[in-house]
Recover the amino acids of this structure.
């Protein structure tokens, strides 16, 4: 069965430093997609970055990059130059060809950025 | 930039009442989804909808839930007889469909609406 694991319930980072949020996944389907979403305290889910299982290069979107290690089944999110506005819950999620597109989510990591 | 919208933002209802949560997906998207998030817990898939029918549903999506696309823009989730445990944030999401290449059939990124916070008393 498919599974997403986020082992860090909470993380602290100093403003302007980089932080890595961990995510491991499990699926037997060779075709899958990995996503990171940000959920601020206001509650909305904001899409950050996507990595496809066939993508040769790690995805990057501005200050966000995804450290995709397929053999280890990990898809860690790296946020460079943290800002106070990055304080939020971060969810890793996965879809796979057999899922008809629906996502399964990890439990999330609460990131707190210190000034 | 196009976005998914949801109404209402908050809904308070009495146990046993029916509620309808409304969503307007991004206009050129073809797949629609409902998810829920009980306070402090992870987001859970409820149902996906494509081509005017349910394509997948989870075990949470039992007979008290239904979805509908009543017109060309709205996508609704109805909870027939609410229970206390239905209190949650309900998210609508939509995506395009990837139609070619190695990832054909694998949906594109899902964009979420701001959510409806439902409280059942």
């Amino acid at each position: 069965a498919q599974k997403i694991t986020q082992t860090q319930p909470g993380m602290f980072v100093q403003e302007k430093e980089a932080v890595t949020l961990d995510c491991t996944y499990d699926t037997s389907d060779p075709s899958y997609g990995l996503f990171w979403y940000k959920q601020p305290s206001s509650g909305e889910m904001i899409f950050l970055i996507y990595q496809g299982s066939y993508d040769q290069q790690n995805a990057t979107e501005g200050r966000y990059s995804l450290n995709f290690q397929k053999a280890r089944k990990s898809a860690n999110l790296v946020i460079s130059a943290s800002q106070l506005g990055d304080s939020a819950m971060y969810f890793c999620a996965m879809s796979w060809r057999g899922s008809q597109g629906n996502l399964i989510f990890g439990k999330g990591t609460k990131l707190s950025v210190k000034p | 930039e196009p976005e998914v919208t949801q109404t209402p933002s908050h809904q308070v209802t009495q146990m046993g009442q029916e509620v309808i949560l409304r969503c307007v997906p991004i206009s050129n998207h073809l797949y629609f989804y409902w998810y829920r998030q009980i306070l402090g817990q992870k987001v859970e898939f409820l149902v996906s909808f494509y081509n005017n029918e349910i394509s997948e549903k989870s075990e949470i999506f039992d007979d008290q839930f239904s979805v509908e696309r009543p017109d060309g823009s709205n996508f609704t989730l109805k909870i027939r007889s609410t229970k206390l445990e239905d209190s949650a944030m309900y998210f609508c999401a939509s995506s395009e469909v990837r139609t070619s290449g190695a990832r054909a059939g694998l949906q594109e990124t899902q964009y979420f609406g701001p959510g409806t916070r439902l409280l059942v008393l």
